[in-house]
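Progress against Task 2.4 (sequence-to-structure conversion) is shown through the following example record, which the project officer requested during the mid-term review.
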Amino acid sequence: MNIDWSTLLLQTINALILIWLLARFLFRPVAKIIADRQKSAEQLLQDAKQQRQQAQAEHQKAVEHLEDLAKHRNEAMSLATSESEELKNTVLENAKKKAVQRRQEADHKLAIETANLQGKLGEWVNQQASVMVEKLMARLPNDARIGGFITELADSLAALPSSDREDLLNSDEMRVIKCARALTQQESLELQSALDKALGHSIKLKFEVTPELIAGFELDAEHFSISNNLKADLEHLTQSLKSDHDLAI
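Structure tokens generated for the chain above:
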């Protein structure tokens, strides 16, 4: 097999440029944006915490007030019957239940607001990251959307369990491969050859242009799916950032 070193060198340079662009124009701004949003979230959580503390203080005042009433009542009615004692207990129990209910409502409201904020933050980060990556990709050679992902897709196929590979080989149906852009004839041949080599057998492929992937491929099978594209990478990054934010909270 002949290796085109010039093509390999150009692809390596493209990859290094892409990594540098992503590090400079994507991850740093996104990290700053996430930090600002986290600061806003922490302020919201602090406000909710203060509301909960206020509810607890009101509960304490209510309990103390009821205890004072009970004390004065016991002093004024030392010979009260068992019915009056039962009434006092009922009032206290109802007050405690009401205070617990208010505290639970505050906790529930806080949990809902936190979940909503985290969901909106994740969606916003994903949208902003996608827009920035698309703008960066537009400045790179068109080959960057496809070239470097062919080998990775073939490696992902080769790493599949034997049962999944057999399902691909034993089916006569055409396998749909979503592509970030339309493939050239040379790219189609390279992709077909790489996948056939990874599986050890030829499979029928159908290419479907899906610009939402930004760059790379996605292969859908009956029991599994392989996502080897920038869209999937961004979603994974967003989920990781969201998980880190949950732990921080």
